[in-house]
Amino acid sequence: MMSSNPKVSVIMPVYNAKEYVEGTIKSVLSQTFRDFELIIIDDGSFDGSAEICEYFSIEDSRVRLRRQENHGICVSRNTAIDMANGQYVAFCDHDDIYEPDYLKLLVEAADDNNADLVKGQYKGIIETNGKETANSIMDYLDGECSLERLLRNYKYFLRTINVLWNGLYVRKIIVECNIRFDESFKAGWEDNIFNLHYLKNCKKIFGVNKLIYSHIRRSGQSASLGYNSRRTDDLMKVYQEEACFLEKKKSIVSGRTFIEHQNRFLTAFKTELWYADCPLTKEEKIRKITMFMKNRKDFRKTELKDFVTVLKENPRATIKWLLFHWKMPCLLCLYWDVKGN
Question: By C-alpha distance, which of 331, 333, 317 is closest to 284?
Answer without folding.
Answer: 333
